[in-house]
Target: rRNA N(6)-adenosine-methyltransferase ZCCHC4
Amino acid sequence: MEGHGGIEVIIQNERDKTAPRCPHGPALLFEKTGNGEEKGRRFYACSACRDRKDCNFFQWADEQISEARMLAREEQNRSKMPLFSHQEYSSRFRAFVSLPLEQRRFCVDCQLLILPGERANHEKHKALSEDTTVQRLKRPSLLLCPLENKKSNAQYLFADRSCHFLLDMLLGLGFQNILCVGTPRLHEVIKLRNMEGKSPKMKSLLLDIDYRYCQFYGQDEFCLYNMFNHHFFDDEEAVTFFQDFLREEGGAKVVMITDPPFGGLVKPLANSFSQMAITWKNQNKGQMPMIWIFPYFFESRILECFPSFSMLDYQVDYDNHPLYKHGKTGRKQSPVRLFTNLSPKDIILPEDEGYRFCSVCERYVSAGNKHCPKCDTCPSKDGREWRHCDECGRCVKPSWRHCSSCGHCALPDHPCGQSQTGCFNCGSQKHKLRACPKKHNKRKNEENDKEKDIRCKHCDLVNITFCLRSHIYLL
Ligand code: SAH
Ligand code: ZN
Ligand code: ZN
Ligand code: ZN
Ligand code: ZN
Model:
């Protein structure tokens, strides 16, 4: 069960074939768990969009859909398709680069490279004309506006520092074929590095839902893909490119690296990545090497799905992220980490950023992460030095103090005494902490570790998965 909003995702691959489709491919099946024992009602909702404004697809699982409504839905799905097919986008790109510089226009409003005959349609739009040099076209992530306002598709681009760290590390481990899932900046940097010729060549296949990239990358290096339902939009053709990529040289040099939107649900993501691993496994033994980039407070959820993964201390940096920037500005430190089935001891974290090797844990840890002999681990998740609390029997954040009335460590200004009227752990008024059914949940501790609760602005509940008022996915 994901979150405590009473909404659970049901993963049923066979059923996906019969799942109704929205413009984002097969919808996901959810169960709204009722109070007590009774079985909850199931419904389908869009897999990709958390904001109803982006996709309002909703259908009760037991609902009968009339033929008329079905047809209207298919029509709606067609109307939401990108303006051009991938092939058309590719030939437009060839036409575009053959234009003299002064005739090249990029429409900022439409996020589209426009050809001379189309200029009239974009007359009232904002256009870039000076800057569409070949050099610029090699960095589409700089030309396109990051999709940052839309909740469902927030695009946070890696800082160069993190791109080069990742690529050098992967090269060092012998990987040369990188499956980039939702990492357009990484794909771009791989291509740039190949052109510069300073480091060994790498191959990259980008899978992403952002169709604007069809303008810049051909079908052999970019598949329009939804990572929440493992859906390829150009069905057969794209699937072939994907399978060929995984099979190249027997797949021995392939590693998958993904940086999903942080609002995404963990279970459907893990299911998609497992499907990829199955395709890869047709050729190989063992597990497909994977790196899943996600905030540290999702650790237990990811490990629930992939028990063989470990979380590394490396803090991933972003360029345009208002909160997660490296250094003194913005937030103190990035909460975004690498989760991987590669062996942690092989992943050498940069010494000049303070990381060092813990020989007991056999992995590289952040500067402030001191090994605790009592916990027998380097316990810090956020990079700060944690402190062992004997009463709690575990290490806690440095800002926490042991509270004897709550019986555990908490922030000094925690809502103490509120547990008098209800449960400190889950907030329920029906039982006390002692009787809390969720008390043994390791995940709860981690959620307490978050800097701040996430409050839904529609229904005002905290840390829920799905807002029943606006049908928005939240965590
Ligand atoms: N740090 C990465 C970008 C991560 S932002 C980089 O610098 O390359 C998340 C990415 O996932 C975006 O590129 C976004 O377009 C993509 N994305 C969002 N929802 C998706 C979905 N449902 N399926 C596939 N990709 C998705
Ligand atoms: Zn250690
Ligand atoms: Zn400890
Ligand atoms: Zn304590
Ligand atoms: Zn809400």
Residues 1-5, 442-453, 459-475 have pLDDT under 50 and may be disordered. The longest helix spans residues 266-281. The radius of gyration is 24 Å. The chain is about 25% helix and 20% strand.
